[in-house]
Amino acid sequence: ELKVEQNPLFLSMQEGKNYTIYCNYSTTSDRLYWYRQDPGKSLESLFVLLSNGAVKQEGRLMASLDTKARLSTLHITAAVHDLSATYFCAVDMIHQAGTALIFGKGTTLSVSS
Amino acid sequence: ETGVTQTPRHLVMGMTNKKSLKCEQHLGHNAMYWYKQSAKKPLELMFVYNFKEQTENNSVPSRFSPECPNSSHLFLHLHTLQPEDSALYLCASSQDGEVSTEAFFGQGTRLTVV
Fold this sequence. Notes:
- The complex is a heterodimer of chains A (113) and B (114).
- Chain A is mostly beta strands.
- Chain A contains no helices and eleven strands.
- Chain B has strands spanning 4-7, 10-13, 18-25, 31-37, 44-50, 53-57, 64-70, 73-79, 87-94, 104-105, 109-113.
- In chain B, a hairpin with a 2-residue loop joins β7 (64-70) and β8 (73-79).
């Protein structure tokens, strides 16, 4: 059974400080995805990581992938309030005729001043 | 319209009712998905359709019945639901078979079973 584990599940951040979210998965997939979900809203794609060593950055967020360790990290630099949301990582599950994404439980970030 | 559109956005139904959720994607994708998101559990994959064929049924109770008449439309028919079925139901689509299976989500249907 494919497992995707995120930690921490909750993170209270102070403005201006740096934090990291971890995503471990149990399959040999070399593709990993990060999504953001605001309260009451749907999921928005943030990053698509397609190979070992892939690194993507957007603003204060940087995601990386280590397929050998089956680990992805989402690094937050100098947290600001508008980063408050729930962040999910997801991995491809290969089934009989295609693929689908399996998600972690999500990490809820709260930024306070 | 662009992206993935779900209707209705909110639905309240009794346990004896029959209702349907609708999803339409305007992205030209070949795969569509239903996910369930509840407070107690993470995003759960329910059904997968590739090229209109259902290829995955993730042990979902038969009171949920999916239908995919073409690659752009996906329905979830609901009947005799239970209160624990109350959740946010998300539809997504992707271009399966490509390098990435990045999924694009609709806004979701917030379902309350009373």
